[in-house]
Design goal:
Layout lengths: L20 E4 L11 H13 L1 H9 L22 E4 L14 E5 L3 E6 L16 H9 L5 E2 L8 E7 L2 H12 L4 E9 L8 E8 L8 E3 L5 E11 L2 E8 L6 H8 L27 E9 L6 E5 L9
Parallel strand pairs: 6-12
Antiparallel strand pairs: 1-2, 3-4, 4-6, 5-6, 7-11, 7-12, 8-9, 8-10, 10-11, 12-13
Length: 309
């Protein structure tokens, strides 16, 4: 079996905590691309326009493995690597800081605020926890071991060294991390708690909200009431699985949707962020045995929900 050649290191540094895009030129048996520019036009002109592609080529924005700019008339060579930085669209700054609960030579445990995405995705690129932490901590190789929803606040684990990432990702994949969340929602006296909710959750790409359907359950959450005050309750949520929006779906299923949830039980129209009404869901604790040292670890968020004070 033929082994794939490892890609060379990027010749461009990160920009705003974001890696450059790496492109490997594909085979061209029909000879459709005499020059690298011809392929770049085919690949990107539909998204950003031919003029913008040509302007980037002229400005030396596309570079080869040696860091030298790719010229407009440079001959096409299948298998060659090319790097470039995307143009980042303007993003509204999330007006909350990322806290650091723990940091050592292997991991960073961050306290992610509400509204801040964990990793670049869609329209959130530079305004993400990963980009901020790389810049602020000077850790360009930092990577997440798991993902916390953008609207959820609390603990997220990042790995400092690429060689350690697999070990920590495996903890989450194999469900060897115990996670506890807190939520604020309406208090319903008739709801008998604690209760374990099991259901089949399906999340389709491009559809904002997940849905429940008949079939074998693929999600499980324990829901407990911690206190109630003024018609609201503070709940402890312990997921046994990690489906997208699982806790939000299960709380809505129980008839007590999480306070300020824009998707459950009803999807609200998209609009400007209201930073004064964060989703009242917090990843409170993380517990696991460190896969490198074998030492039991437990971390607690320093954040607090504002819905029940």
């Amino acid at each position: 079996m033929r082994r794939r050649t490892k890609a060379p290191a990027a010749p461009l540094p990160q920009r705003a905590g974001i890696d450059p895009v790496r492109l490997r030129l594909p085979a061209d048996p029909a000879g459709a691309w005499p020059t690298v520019r011809d392929h770049l036009l085919t690949r990107y002109a539909g998204a950003i326009g031919a003029e913008r592609v040509d302007a980037m080529v002229a400005a030396g924005r596309f570079v080869g493995a040696d860091g030298a700019p790719v010229g407009a008339e440079e001959a096409y060579a299948p298998g060659r690597y090319v790097w470039f930085h995307r143009d980042f669209p303007p993003e509204e700054r999330v007006p909350f800081e990322v806290g650091i609960v723990h940091r050592d030579e292997r991991i960073v445990i961050a306290d992610k605020p509400h509204f801040l995405a964990t990793t670049p995705r869609g329209r959130h690129v530079t305004e993400t926890a990963l980009a901020r932490l790389r810049r602020d901590l000077g850790l360009p190789e930092l990577q997440p071991a798991h993902r916390l929803d953008r609207l959820t606040a609390g603990l997220a684990l990042f790995v400092v060294r690429p060689e350690d990432r697999g070990a920590y990702q495996t903890l989450f994949r194999d469900r060897r991390v115990r996670k506890e969340y807190e939520a604020v929602a309406a208090y319903e006296p008739s709801l008998r708690l604690p209760v374990t909710v099991r259901s089949r959750i399906v999340k389709e790409r491009g559809v904002p909200a997940a849905r429940e359907e008949a079939g074998e359950p693929n999600s499980e959450s324990l829901v407990e009431l911690l206190e109630c005050r003024g018609g609201l309750g503070r709940y402890r949520l312990v997921p046994a699985t990690g489906r997208t929006h699982q806790l939000r779906v299960h709380m809505a299923r129980l008839g007590v949707p999480i306070l300020h949830d824009p998707l459950y039980p009803v999807v609200r129209e998209d609009g400007p962020e209201d930073f004064t009404r964060p989703l009242q869901l917090l990843a409170r604790t993380l517990e696991f045995t460190d896969p490198v040292t074998g030492v039991p670890m437990r971390f607690v968020s320093g954040l607090a929900l504002s819905g029940l004070v």
